[in-house]
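Quick log. Single chain, no ligands specified.
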Amino acid sequence: MAAFTWADLLFQIGFRLNRIDLPNAFVREMAAERVDFYGPQVLYPAEVVNNDIVTNQGQQFYPLPRGTQKVRYVRILQGGIWIPCPIADHYEDILYSDPQQPPFVSLPVSLCAVLGNQLRLFPTPFGPLPVELTIDQTIIEPTDDNDSTNFWVTDGRILLINSTCLEICSEYLDIEVPQSPRIEKFQKNTDEALAQLMGRSHALSTPSLMKQHL
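-> predicted structure:
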């Protein structure tokens, strides 16, 4: 029997709604929203290194990777050397340091701060610089449709399918019937799946089971 994949999961959402005509991009977006919502509830964050950010000249803010729960360390590659970039204790520290408009762009980056889901660098980068983040991050959905090992395709599958179906019904398909039978069904299934995952994570002495999917 073929392994259940991310593509299969996305198909199941439309199939269970009896709406396989739903745009694939829409289903993906709704599933991603549920991953962002439930991920911190059912998963222990793991410490990972991320190199997605490369700075642009004159750009101060950069979106943090999805699933980021905490930024622990920041390093910036300048002149072939990875230079640690201290994280400000308070966002206001950068505001006090950067009063000019337009901001400084000629100095090496020497300070950063997290604001919401963004990272602000000071001084403003003067060109493309690779940024290395050490972060606590929960698992996001796969980027490969053939992925069969991601947490959301295995242990989290029932929760993600039912919660996504619930959200699509609540916000779009059954918006005029807030207590429709299928909303009630998907709500019940979502609650049961969430309780099961929470029960499993609380029964562990360590978070190793949930971390193993990273």
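The radius of gyration is 21 Å.
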